[in-house]
């Protein structure tokens, strides 16, 4: 249903390192790279990070990205933490989320600006 998602970040290089690490584990890559914007996808830009000189505001909601399975969720989570992200509270670690469905497995992360990213397998 979504065409693309864009997030404003405070430090494009720092955030790009974080998203490079996460998306590489999910089979995605940078498909656009400019001084004030980076975009990721398989072939077309679907997830953008943009630096516009305004600070982002944590707590706006979250973006959920699909993973091919539990191992991919775990790998993306580990890469995100290594690249400067952090779990979104004690419940952020990769785990089954039966309240969302019998196959739902997800991790909840905060990017370097405190924006919430969910990595999910078995959601749909």
Automatic annotation (TrEMBL):
InterPro entries, per the entry: Glyas_Bleomycin-R_OHBP_Dase, Glyas_Fos-R_dOase_dom, VOC_core
Report the leader peptide range: none
List, alphabetically, the Pfam families matched: Glyoxalase (PF00903)
Q: Which residues form the VOC domain?
A: 1-122
Query: What is the official name of this protein in its record?
Result: VOC family protein
Q: Source species, please?
A: Baekduia soli
